[in-house]
Amino acid sequence: MAPVPITIVTGFLGSGKTTLILNLIPQLPHTYKIALLKNEFGDVAIDSQLASSAAISGVQELLNGCICCNLVGQLGDALESLLKDIGPDRIIIETSGSAFPATLAMEINRLGRETGNYVLDGVVVVIDVENWKGYEDTSYTAKMQQKYTDLIVFNKWELVDERKYDDCLDRVGDLELQIANVKSDKGRVDQSLLLGLDSALAKDGDSVNGGYSKDKPPQEHSKDHETEVEVLSVNLVSEGDKPKSVDLDALETFLLSAPKDEVYRIKAIVSATRAMASSSGDIDESSRSQPGVSVYILNWAFGRWTFTRSNATLPAPIGVSSSTATTVVSNTHETILRMTIVLARGEASKWKSRLEKGGMVQQEGEGGFLMISRVI
Question: By the 8 A CB rule, do 162 and 190 touch?
Answer without folding.
Answer: no
